Amino acid sequence: MNKRNYTIGMAGHIDHGKTTLTKALTQIDTDRLKEEKERNISIELGFAPLKLKGTDANVSIVDVPGHEKFIRQMIAGVAGIDLVIITIAADEGIMPQTKEHMAILSLLNINQAIIAITKIDKVDHELLQLVTDDVKEHLTETNFSQSPIVFVDSLSGEGISNLEEKIVESLQETPLRNTHSPFRMPVDQVFTMKGIGSVVRGTIYEGSLRRGERFFVLPGLAKEAKARQIQVHNQDVEEAVAGQRAAINISGVSKEDLDRGNVLVKNPGYFDETDIIDVSLQLLGDINHPVKQRTPIKLHTGANEVYGKIVFFDRNEVQPKKEEILCQVRLQEPIVVNRGDRFVLRRATPVETLGGGWIMNPNGEKYKFGSHTIQRLQQLKEGSPGTLVRQLLQEEKWLKQPELMRKLSFSKTKLDEILHELKESGRIVQVEGYFASSMTVEELWNDIFGRLEDYHHSYPLKSGMNKPELFQFNQTPNKVLEWLLDQWTKEKRLKQYKQYISLYSFSPSMPSQWKRRMENIINHLYEDQIQVQELEFYLKEEGIPEELHEDFKTFLINQQLAYLLTDKHIIHANVLHAEVKRLSKQTEEYFTLKEAKDVWNVSRKYLIPLLELMDSLQFTERADGNRKWIGRPN
């Protein structure tokens, strides 16, 4: 489980010990607000890191409110989790919010659970057995019938180690989130910090975000923002990835423009802002009243809570029973979702959870009532061929046509038609025989841009990043990378110097804190003319850090400020050109070593390296032990 990232939800009825159990596991009290302390209930989401023995997994616990008034916070908290711990107090058993939380978890397709029977110190063995039997009986009718049951007393610590073992076992069976998909993080908290500015928190659903990277806040805001600082559980990190809880210090967007329910993305073109969604809806079987055509509802998805109405196309009313319905939800405000996202519907009034399901199509239209629309929705549910191609390419990145045919079971003729249509619309690209989503190329560019930007900031003296180093962890085929590199160079996004790659706008420069001392070295090189000291002498004299020595030497040579005379000596470029001119004026077409020595008045220590440097620069060439001018300076 090395370097795996998971988020665990702590759910259950109010006062069934969620916060106390979280503290027993993490030693952190997640009730932070004054009102939470006074009322002894959780109102907002609480977060804490969980360290598990014997694993390097990065685990976060989200403690969600148990009171029915705070269902929105509860749904926002559990929407991005990988595993849930459902707490049931031994002295009360299953209560209304326990049942509602379980129903919501099932609707969000969260089936990985551990049942924690808490407060076992408050009941005797006989009553504990009765409560356990009641819990098991209720679980048989839910998605959690196979979930392990543990017994804990959070105050004494009894059962906590057993719970930790069950958590490790469950997470080993939990698939990791996709860190290579386009970045998406629903925002469930917004606040400001003195001296810091605007901060947002959320669970990263997909992809990753690096410090300094730019992104957009959706819906509505076209303004670009920047991740000034990223923290995971109060620790500064360079990058946060899918499955982690992250706090992001934002620059470029004020707190007034941010709200719970916003979504952070790097590629706004990949995610849809919509107020009409086509859905597969699963109603609960125990709702209190029929659901009628255009019933007002509240839709919960990610951290969103948006009012809207249900629109049916094959009925005008649904009686309380469990069934799947293909229908539409029309919203009063736009949201940001993707195909496959889960949602929960609650009746606006009287308040109750109606059901939930998954979004088949984020870009719904106003269809006509009747069987034709239901057939269309059925096709959407099953997925159009184009959608299936795009989904596969988004998951596997770069595939050749035979692989696409094999994985999708399409004929060559059908696949050719689909690929042509997707290329014409700009949704996919073809490079060197490989196909990929356009967003994959954009993600690759953003990754390269971010890495080069960071590298230039850390190593301003260097001409760029070594190409093998830049691409060493990239899974993109080499042929594709070379083609894209050439294309981005033509588009003046990148430039290449020998084996070094840099952003087109970048030019090497001396670090600001060492610039004055480095300029002193350049001046000393000029003052010492031909008979320069070893470069190491000047570097130590000016106190330049040793780790910058080689970079500074390379910088001087690459910027043509100096030439390499020997392994240890360099000569100022202006000095060399002046001395070459002086020698040219005082010698004929052919000249001897002695003539050069007389002009320059130097020992062989400098004479031979100077003449060899002139040869390499094609001013001269050897001729029977002498030198011949082949490129006299003007």
Biggest sheet statistics: 8 strands, antiparallel
What's the β-strand tally? 35
> How does CATH name the architecture of the largest domain?
3-Layer(aba) Sandwich
Instruction: Give the termini separation.
Output: 68 Å
- The global form is elongated
How many distinct domains? Answer: 5
Number of contiguous helices? 19
Q: What is the CA-based Rg, rounded?
A: 33 Å
Give the uncertain stretches in residue-range form: 33-43
Top-tier CATH class of the largest domain: Alpha Beta
The portion of residues forming beta strands comes to 25-35%
Mean pLDDT: 85
Helix/strand structural class: alpha+beta
Determine the fraction of residues in helical runs and give it as a percent range: 25-40%
CATH topology of the largest domain: Rossmann fold
CATH superfamily of the largest domain: P-loop containing nucleotide triphosphate hydrolases
Domain Tr-type G: 3-176
GO cellular component, one term: cytosol
Subcellular location: Cytoplasm
Function: Translation factor necessary for the incorporation of selenocysteine into proteins. It probably replaces EF-Tu for the insertion of selenocysteine directed by the UGA codon. SelB binds GTP and GDP.
